[in-house]
Amino acid sequence: MERRTFGKTDMKVSALGFGGAEIGFEKADAASVRELLSIALDSGLNVIDTAECYEGSEELIGNAVGSRRDQFFLFTKCGHGANFTDAWAADQINKSIDRSLKRLKTDCVDLIQLHSCSEQILRKGEAIEALQRAQKAGKTRYIGYSGDGTDALCAIKTGVFDALQTSVSIADQQCLELTIPLAIEAGMGIIAKRPIANAAWRTKTKPDNSYIQPYWERLQELKYEFINGNPEEPATKALRFTLSVPGVCVAIVGTTKASRWKQNAEIAAKGSLESKDFDAIRARWKETAKADWIGQI
Question: pTM for this structure?
Answer without folding.
Answer: 0.96
